[in-house]
Amino acid sequence: QLSTLLSTLSHQPPREALPRRAKPDGCMGCAPRLAGAMSLGGLMAATTPPFLKAAAFLAAPFKKAARAPTRWPRLGDARASEPPTPLEEVDAIVKRVAGKSAQWARVPCEERARMLRDMLPLIINELDAGGGAALSAEHKGSYGPDCAEEGFISACVIMAVREYAECMEAGGRPKPLSVSTRADGQQVVHVGPIGAVENMTFPGYRFEQWLLPNAAKPPTQGRVYRAADEGRPVDGGLAVVLGAGNQWVISMLDALHVLLAENRVAVVKMNPVNEHMGPACRRMLAPFVEGGFVEFVYGGIEQGVHLTKHAQAASVHLTGSVGTYDAIVWGGSGKKANAEKPITDKAVTAELGCVTPWVIAPGNWSDAAIEYHARNAVALMVNNASHNCNATKVLITSATWEKREQFLDTVRRLLAEARPRIAYYPGAEANYKKYMAAYPDAEVLGAHAPDAPGLVVPWTFKSGVSADDVDAGKNDLCCTFEPWCGVLSEVVVPEDPAAGSDRDAQTKSFLNRAVALANERCFGNLSCSLIVPPSTQRRCPAEFDAAVAGLKYGSVVVNGPSSLAFAISRTCWAAFPGNDTRDIQSGCGHVHNTMLFDEPEKGVVHCPWMEGKVPFWDHDPPNAKNLWQPTLHLLAYKQLFSGQGMAAIRRVILN
Q1: Structure confidence at residue 17 (pLDDT)
Q2: Which of 94, 149, 400, 609 is most deeply packed, by most CB within 10 A?
Q3: Whole-angstrom distance, CA of residue 443 vs CA of residue 431
Q4: Between 624-637 and 109-127, two packed helices, what is the crossing angle to 10 degrees?
């Protein structure tokens, strides 16, 4: 609301005297620049127009912090690790936590809300400088903003914990902003942003939870809490959570989901890659650990197999690979084809990765828009050394787009400028070699960093892969193989002869084919980005709407990075429903969905075409070091003028 008000009060006509129709998408007047600068994230750039002296004065304390030098991660013997939990101790932990299942099923919403609220200061204290964020950065490396990248990632946990608390305070059925019904009858729930702080953090955004086509009308929420209100508490038993190795926040969020959405107690096995964060996660979950409802164990395959086959485990949730899922469900990928039925009778849900596509529609792009969206794509490829299931992997472009080469050149420049990072995840070297064997002419744009203490996969880009070849099953490794390292590909959709010289007809044809390519040729269906200029949306409204609806992904982000859907925890994070257990793709089941809608299909996040600021997901933000801790305070308490909020602001001013 504040952003909108400032936009209105400060509106000035754009300086350029271009005709309105010819003005490229992305030419920003003063109003949107001010709205972005005055948003919470906008303080990172403080790009306030010079004639607004008052705003400039207010923004002055938030000066850009000097970028820190690269700090390589600790590797090998220098890495702190947790000793494997002996199997006898694993059994004792499982027995103890499973024995709390019936008690947990009867813990009322009010008590659950209190436990969640008690977590917030624990998380913030744990992540303060020298704490969890710094520890995680030590093991991954720090590439400019000190430990801020890890600090901002923890905002996902902060927002989810607060939203779950709000949900519990509403009896497990919080009221959304609105529910609408599309022309085809599908229900769409408007779930955010809610409140001044969220709107300042995400100015001009819209978060939607789309429900299954046959979902109940009106939509239902909080299944286990409705049952409790009816005197039928649901005892979900014990869930085994196999944590992700790339992001520690996933283990936290998955544990909260099984506790609060499924009414299960949980034993969390940390992944060996980031098990050093296990004690910190345990301290942050202290209200649930002290109650006996959650516990952590450590180790590798031996402990994982023991847990997933344990007689007292009712369910398993994992974030990992298709190979791990197949081992749990079928006994191995090579056995599922001939198996009559799964080897386990436990409920198994999973999030298993994706070759994440970005559909980039042609249109009247400005130079600023090209820079902004190319930087977004590169940022999400570079983040975490590209060891993310939602990392940018395939740009789908149109051969008819007159600015395609400019966009690709911008991508090349940004990749060349990005700092090299240690590819710390096991298997990165083999994956890179496999990719380069398929595309020996790929452009190696990033530096090799010979002084690095470990493997650096140089940022690598393969452009010009033909969509015709991909559709024919040729030259398609970029779409069928998740490389899990710093490579990026472009698949170009050729001109449609049937559309002729009609630009709009070509754009409509492109959108239809690009969506089909993403759905049918790219491995997985977890998340994707759809980048469509406002002018293209206006000229091709039916095709744009069909693209949003037609992308069969668990999350669709319009005009923003696909990873944003992971951070927005009111929408579900999941594979698109319906994957076969013998071809599981990105998985089954869902997490997040903090408003607890019973029948989610996919989350859709609508972003503004451009922001007048450096977004918080940028790979080298100018002021992240100063702002990540105050941001966590504000997101945790949603009170600008509370003691915590003012203390957060003072920390920035006095920095």
Answers
A1: 32
A2: 149
A3: 16
A4: 170
Give 323-330's long-range contacts (Cβ < 8 A, gap of 24+): 324/242, 325/350, 325/352, 325/584, 325/587, 326/584, 329/581, 329/584, 330/581, 330/582
CA–CA distance, 373 with 362 (Å, rounded to integer):
13
End-to-end Cα separation, the chain, in angstroms: 28
**What is the residue-wise DSSP string for 400-463?**
T-TTHHHHHHHHHHHHHHSPP-B--STTHHHHHHHHHHH-TT-EE-S---TT-SS-B---EEEE
Check residue 647 and give its pLDDT.
Answer: 56
pLDDT at 631: 84
Do 370 and 334 form a contact (C-beta atoms < 8 A)?
Answer: no
| Nearest-angstrom CA–CA distance, 146 and 137 | 8
Q: Is the peptide bond before 453 cis (omega within 30 degrees of 0)?
A: no
Please classify residue 311 by burial: count the beta carbons closer than 10 Å to its beta carbon, then call 0-12 exposed, 13-18 middle and 19+ buried. Answer: exposed
Listed residue (76, 70, 66, 134) closest to 449, CA to CA: 70
Helices (H), 107-205: 109-127, 132-140, 148-153, 155-169, 195-201
What pLDDT was estimated at residue 129?
A: 55
**Closest by CA position to 398, among listed 353, 365, 437:** 365
Give average pLDDT by consecutive 10-residue segment, the chain, 655 residues.
36 33 59 41 38 38 57 67 95 98 98 98 82 78 76 92 98 98 98 93 96 97 96 96 97 98 98 94 97 98 98 98 97 90 97 97 96 97 96 98 98 96 95 98 92 92 98 97 98 97 96 98 98 97 98 98 96 98 98 98 98 84 78 84 57 47
CB 115 within 8 A of CB 291: yes
Contact criterion met (CB below 8 Å) for 461 and 434 = no
The residue behind tokens 């990632």 is 153
Report whether 138 contacts 273 (CB < 8 A).
no
Beta-bridge partner residues of 240: 267, 316
Alpha-carbon gap, residue 590 to 317, rounded angstroms: 10
Contacts 24+ apart (CB under 8 A), 437-440: 438/475, 438/477, 438/478, 439/477, 439/478, 439/489
**Rounded distance, CA 17 to CA 15, Å?**
6
